[in-house]
C-alpha cells in the first residue's frame, strides 16, 4: 500500500468520500476502491517499530481478568427483519432490497470453542470494574472483504501494543489482524476508565469497515456500583448506499431501521433503567425518550442531549411512568428509521 | 395511510428528503408527497389501543392549573417584514418572494373567545412552576394543509394520553387532532421538569409541519424562583426551499431572517437578562452574543455553546455592558440571516 | 456596498454558499463574488454611530497590560509541507497543488519593529491573567485580497469600540481596518474571562476570510494559576475548494493536513499536558487522543468530546502513558487529514 499514491486515489475520492460516508452522494465506487486499497495494506514489520517495550498490564489487587473471545466476520445483514415500520403501522415494501454485506463482531465462548450468538451490530458489550483487566481475544474470520481489522477501545488504559490502531510504518501487531489471524488485547480499567465507551475497528480501512458495523460498547463501573435493572446499549447510525450497495439511505439503531426492528426496550415501574447511547456514524445526533427526563452530569434536567461520533450519553432513571413510549434521534430526517419502542409496564 | 406502501414512497424520497429537510437539494415535490400522504392518515380507532388507562394529573398542593388555549393554523408568513438586512445595512431585493404558507400556533383567551395575538413562530411560551399542571387546549384550525397536528411537550410529565405523538396503530386521541378538532392536554410540572423545553407537532406529518413553524417553548421554574427582568426565547432554524416553495434557503431566528427582522432584544444595565435558545431545525447550531459571557451548568464560562435539534441552552447574566451588540449562530453560512440585535442601555 | 442589492447576489449564492463553505459543492465563483463585494464595503462614517462613548479599559490593581502587535496579511500557504501522510506512511502526490492564498495573522515585536515569526494559522496565541488588559495593535497588511479585516475576540470584556465587528451602518472604527490601516483594541480580562477562547476576523467578508485562516486563540488564567508544562492550541477545520481554488477538500488542523504536517505534540512522563482544541470551520467535530482520557468540567471522564464552530474544549492530564499516539477528529471523513502525532516520552 505504501507504494500506492494514496492522494492520487484520494484526489479522485477525497471530497467524494467526504460526502459519501454521509450518504449524500453516490460514491459506491469509491468505497470499493478503499476496499481494494486496504487489501494491499502491508502487515507490520516483524521487528519493533521503535525502542519502546511495555509490560502486559495485570489486574489490581482485588481486580479480575475479564476475558472475551470475539471474532470479526462479514455477515449478510437484514436492515429490517420484520419487514415493517411499526411506528407508522405499515409494511416496508417487499421488493426493496434490505440485505447487504455488513462487518460485525461476534462473541464466542472460551478458546473460541463455540459462538455464543450471531454476529451483532453493535458487537458484544464488554463489562468490567475498576481494577480489572479486560482481555479481548480478537480473531479476523472475514472471508468476504479480505481485509485486516482491529479492535480499538476508548476509555480503558492501554500501551501502544494494545492500541489497536493501524499506523502505517509505525503499526504494531495489534494494529493489523490479517484475515485468519488473531490478536490478544489487554486493557486496564483505571479509575478514570469509569464510564461507557465505544470500541471499533481502527485497521487500514477503518472508516469503511466501522461504518459496516465493526463497533461495540465497553462499560466500566466503580467497584460496588449498583447495576441497573435494565441496561440498554444503543448506537444511532446510518447505512448509506455507498456502504451497503443498496438503493436507500437507512437511518438505523443497532443496525436496524424503524420501530419493531430497532431494539424494543422493556422495563417495569420501579426498576432502575439505564440507556447508554452512542453516535455511531459521522453525523451528530440527539437522544430523546418520550415521557421521561433525567439529570445530566452537571445537574441539569434533560430529555434530548447531543451525541457526536463515537461518544456516548447515559440516561438513567427509576421507572415511574408506564406506557408505550417512542425513543428516537431528534434530527428530523434521522427519525425516518432511527426510532424504537420503549415499554414501561406497571 | 396504512394501505399505502410507505417505503415505496420513501424509496423515492428517503435519501432525498434526508437532504431536502436540510435544504441542500431541491425536493419540493417530496415535501408535497409527504403532505398528500399525511392527508390520508387515519384517525385513531375509537377503542383503546391497549388496556392501559391513566388518571388525569392534578396540581400538587399549592400548585395551580396553568391553562392555555392555542390553535394551530396555516398562515402566510413573511420571512423578512422590514425588507432589510440591518446588520449589513441594505435592503433585501424587493422582487424576491419572501412569503409562504407556514404552520403556526396562536394563543387565544379562555374558551377560544378571542385571539391574544397573531399566529407566531415560535408559538406562545407556556410557563409554570413545579407542582403546577399545564392544561393546553389545542385546536386544529388549519384550512390550508388539511392535516392532523398535535402538541408534543418536552420536559413536563405526561401519561401516554397526553404524549401528543402519532404512533400509527397505537395512536391515542392526543396524537391526532384532525382539522376542525380540539384536544385538551394535561401535563405535570414535576421537580425534574425544571428547565426550558420545546413543544412541537408530532402528528402524522411532523417532520414537515414542525419545519413549517409548529413549535414553541415551555418554561418550568422552581417555586419562588426569581424571574429575570428580560426573558427571550429564540429558535435558531431554517426555511429551506422545499418547505417554503421559495427560491432561497433562509437562515432564520423565530421565523425571520436578518437583523431587524429577527427579535431585537433590549435591556438596561443592572437588569437580570435571560436568553432561552433552541435548535429548531435539523442542524446543529451555536449561540454567541457579542460583549457577553456566562457560566454554564458545569461552572465553565462560555459565550458560544452548541445547540442540537429541539434542545436548548439558557444564557443569563446581570447586564453590565451597554451598547449595540450582535447575537448570532456561529456556524459560518448560518450567519447570513441567523443574527439579530441586542441593545443594552445604560 | 450598501447600494448593492445583496440579496440579488445572495439569491444566486445564498444556498450555494451555504453548501460551499462546507465544501460540498463547487462555488468558487461565489467566494470570488463575496470578495468583490467586500472590496466595495464603505468604511464607517467619521462621526459616532450613536451617542454612546466608552472609557478605555485599564488593568485592575496588580494587573498588567499585555500588548501584542499583529498584522493580517495574505500568504501563500502550503497545506502539506512534508509532502507526506505519515499516519498512512506514504507520499502525497507531488503533482497535486497544495498551495493557495490564505489570510493569516502574524506576530510582530513592539511597534511592529520586526516580525517574530511568519504568518501562522492559527495566529499568535494571546495570553493574560484576570485583572490584565490585552492591547492588540492590529495592522491590515493585506496586499492581495484588498479587503478590510478586524480582530473580534471571544471571552474577554470589551466595549462596542473594541468589538471588532463590521456592523454595516453601525460600524465603529474597530470594525473595519482597511488595507494599510491599523487599529488598537483594548480588552479586559474579567473573572468570567477565564478560559480558552477564539479570536477571528469579523470584517465585511468575515465568513470567507475567517475560513482562509484569520483566527487564533486567547487564554485567560486565574491569577497564580499553574501553567501546564506542555500547552497546545489546535484548530480543527477545513480548506474546501471554493476557499482555496484547489481541486481537493482538505481536512486540516492548524492549516495543515495529515500527520507530520499537523502539529506533532511532545511531552514527557510526569508533565502536565494541556490541549486547547477549537472547532475552526462550519462543521462540528470531536477531539480524540489515543491512550488518554480526562475529566470534563462536570466530572465525567471523556476521551472524545464534541466541538462546535469557534468554541473549545481543554483536555488536560499528567502524562503517564508513554508512546506514539494518534490524535484526531472522530468524524469519519474528517480523519483523512484531521489527525496528528502525539509523542509521550519516558
Structural summary, described in words:
Three copies of one chain form a homotrimer. Chain A folds into three domains: 6-39, no CATH class; 53-224, Immunoglobulin-like; 226-346, Immunoglobulin-like, CATH 2.60.40.420. Chain A is built from four helices and 22 strands. The first copy, chain A, has a four-stranded mixed beta sheet, with no helix packed on it. Chain A has a four-stranded mixed beta sheet with strand order 5-10-9-7. A four-stranded mixed beta sheet of chain A has the order 12-11-14-20. Chain A is mainly beta. Chain A has helices spanning 6-20, 28-39, 206-211, 241-244; strands at 65-78, 84-85, 90-91, 99-108, 126-129, 133-140, 152-153, 182-188, 195-200, 215-221, 230-239, 250-253, 265-268, 272-279, 285-286, 288-289, 294-295, 301-302, 306-307, 312-318, 323-328, 339-345. Helices cover 11% and strands 34% of the residues of chain A. The radius of gyration of chain A is 20 Å and the shape is globular. Chains in contact: A-B, A-C, B-C. Chains B and C meet through strand 3, strand 17, strand 18 and strand 21 of B and helix 1 and helix 3 of C.
Strand order of the biggest β-sheet of chain A: 4-1-6-8
Number of helices of chain A: 4
Question: What oligomeric state best describes the polypeptide chains here?
Answer: homotrimer
Largest sheet of chain A: 4 strands, mixed
Spatial extent as radius of gyration of chain A = 20 Å
SS elements, strand count of chain A: 22
Shape of chain A: globular
Q: What is the count of distinct domains of chain A?
A: 3
Question: In terms of structural class, how would the helical and strand content of chain A be classed?
Answer: mainly beta
**SSE order of chain A in H/E notation?**
HHEEEEEEEEEHEEHEEEEEEEEEEE
Second CATH tier, the architecture of the largest domain in chain A = Sandwich
Largest interface, per-chain counts? A-B, 51 and 54 residues
The top-level CATH class of the largest domain in chain A is: Mainly Beta
* Termini Cα gap of chain A: 59 Å
Mean pLDDT across the residues of chain A is 91
